[in-house]
Amino acid sequence: MKRTSWVALGVILAVMAIVVYSTFQIGGVRCEVCITFHGRQVCREVDGATEHEAQMAAITNACALLASGVTDTIACQNAPRDRLTCRPE
Question: What is the pTM of this model?
Fold first, then answer.
């Protein structure tokens, strides 16, 4: 193999290693959110790098199970939370 082929292979492997490493990174914060919407309650826990990121992801996950359509989803995301707790991981 030519030298340029080895260099290209090395770059590809390095990029793949970075992607795999970042995929398995554990978040710094774990948040649990419980939301009641249209008479149903769902709780979800999510890890995130920041508290805000983990909160938003948990809210999105909970509302994905409770709401259907854009209008319902927005209303669900703006609904009061029954519980919202975060802790460092």
Answer: 0.69
Cα atoms in the Cβ-side hemisphere of radius 13 Å centred on 48: 17
Nearest to 57 by CA among 69, 70, 44: 44
Centre a 10 Å sphere on the Cβ of residue 32 and count the other Cβ atoms it contains. 18
| Residue 18 in domain | no
In a domain, 64, yes or no: yes
Tokens (6 digits) for 71: 């209008």
Find out whether 39 and 79 touch, Cβ atoms under 8 Å.
Answer: no
- Interaxial angle between packed helices 51-66 and 70-78, expressed in degrees from 0 to 180 and rounded to the nearest 10: 130
* Domain with 57 in it: 29-88
- Per-residue pLDDT of 50-63, as tens digits, reads 999 999 999 999 99
Tokens of 72: 């319902």
